[in-house]
Amino acid sequence: MTQPLLEMRDIVKSFSGVRALNGVSIKLARGEALSICGENGSGKSTLMKVLSGVWPYGSYEGDIFFEGQAVKAAGIRDTEALGIVIIHQELALVKELSVLENIFLGNELGSFAKLNDEDMYRRTRDLLKRVKLEVSPNTLVRDLGVGQQQLVEIAKALNKNVKLLILDEPTSSLTRNEIQILLNIVHDLKDQGIACIYISHKLDEVLDLSTWVAVIRDGDHIDTRSAAELTQNDIISMMVGRELEALFPREVHDIGETVLRVKNAHAMQAGASIPQVNDVSFELKKGEILGISGLIGSGRTELMQCIYGCYDGRYSATIEMQGQSLTIRSQRDALAAGIAMVPEDRKRHGIIPIMGVGRNISLSVLDDYVTYLGAIDENRETQDTVDYIARLKVKTASPELPIKNLSGGNQQKAIIAKCLLTNPKILILDEPTRGIDVGAKYEIYKLMHALVKEGMSIIMVSSELPEVIGISDRVLVMHEGRLKGEFDHQGLTQEMIMNCAIKEGV
Ligand SMILES: Nc1ncnc2c1ncn2[C@@H]1O[C@H](COP(=O)(O)OP(=O)(O)OP(=O)(O)O)[C@@H](O)[C@H]1O
Ligand SMILES: [Mg+2]
Predict the structure, then answer these.
(1) DSSP state of 288
(2) Cβ contacts of 66 within 8 Å, gap of 6 or more
(3) Tell me: the pLDDT tens digits for 151-202?
(4) Which atom of ligand 1 is closest in space to residue 409's alpha carbon?
(5) Of 221, 185, 424, which Cα lies nearest the Cα of 307?
(6) Relative to the CA of 44, which ligand 1 atom is closest?
(7) Is 415 helix (H, G, I), strand (E, B) or coil?
(8) Ligand 1 centroid to 201 CA: how many Å?
(9) Does domain 6-240 have CATH number 3.40.50.1000?
(10) What does the CA dihedral 148, 150, 151, 156 come to, rounded to 10 degrees?
(11) Is it true that 6-240 and 254-338+424-506 share their CATH fold?
(12) CA–CA distance, 158 with 166 (Å, rounded to integer)
């Protein structure tokens, strides 16, 4: 390697005595991309927080060198001044401000203080062109999709004269097109001599972009290898410490009679002219995994929200469960009927960040633990939550740890545990494996199979076609609010789903 731009040596970081990083070393040169791979909770985001100054000098052990100089940052302002910019796993734009305002936010007093409005407008327009985002600089961020917001974050980074760009799981909520745009931008940046650190559970992206792949497992640095000599399977076995037999365990389900019948579901936002869900009817059988596919925006999530009683707008549907008609107007009604849902956006609907992991899991069924004296039977509560923490392999130092301190993927597992504790008859999973590592995905699929064998029925909305095909018994495809197709999993291919998902006409 030529003279490295960045070198991190023997980084050790602990949280209240628990080691998250156990002596990790990485380096990379200008124009190179380094991917960091590892299971949920292995320490990837923590390493990046050390690098970017979120965890300041003195709160970790080890050394960091950038352009040959020792870095002793007190915060992210110091590392940004050096040209190190991080885009976190959770986006950090101010939704009520415009694209332009977000791009210059935090920079008003810096080198741009002299710029007038017109200069800023022109500069923003040029930056947006560089990231291939065709929106006006005055657009409010809240009116942009997640993928577009991600591009604004990159534009903002480019405005800071970035030398090293860190992307922590940038594509987990993006559409295929948006992912391609993002990958192209990273390739362009490399060509311009900018270095990039990339974190993703999508190993095809990792291999597409990287010069180097570093693998960490439980805070230990396993190895760094040249991406050119690696396959996805090599990375997986370095990550999990063993070969996985298969990515998708296939099991035969004993499918019974219809448990849920949804008829004529409609959903429309206030003031909108086109419905998000347009006259959808379908059935779910006992012991079945029903996959729901379709492009982002095709109405899949909104259909689930109609069933779960949490659609934010006008909606109607006739719902029958085991032959009985149901009225579901709230999450409470749904849970009482035996329907639980793991939402797509866990930050907004899923968790209470500062509350402990255990209590987050038991929250929906807390009433069940109230004793006749009116207190909560904490022993029984802990027993149940600890059981699910083990079953789903949620990596947490203790059940009392605030859930916000868990790694992204482990928060997701805790939300699934929370739903399972309600012991539902019907479980709705909206993008259940987003941000989850390959080993844990496999565990979740096995758990889904076990649950339907016990008689539960599962509806899974997913944008990952291999997952939809690999796990479902039957697949429904949506297009612009309507149900466009229904397929048995046997003989089903990605092309068949894509053709159905993008086809115009009825
Ligand atoms: N602020 C914190 N307080 C306590 N523990 C923490 C804190 N931040 C991280 N941890 C712990 O450090 C470990 C590593 O977490 P980290 O977020 O770095 O994982 P990750 O590799 O990014 O995982 P994922 O793929 O799920 O995002 C986890 O066990 C996590 O619970
Ligand atoms: Mg992370």
Answers:
(1) -
(2) 5, 6, 82, 83, 84, 164
(3) 899 899 888 889 999 999 887 777 777 888 889 999 999 999 999 999 999 8
(4) 26
(5) 424
(6) 21
(7) helix
(8) 15
(9) no
(10) 130
(11) yes
(12) 12
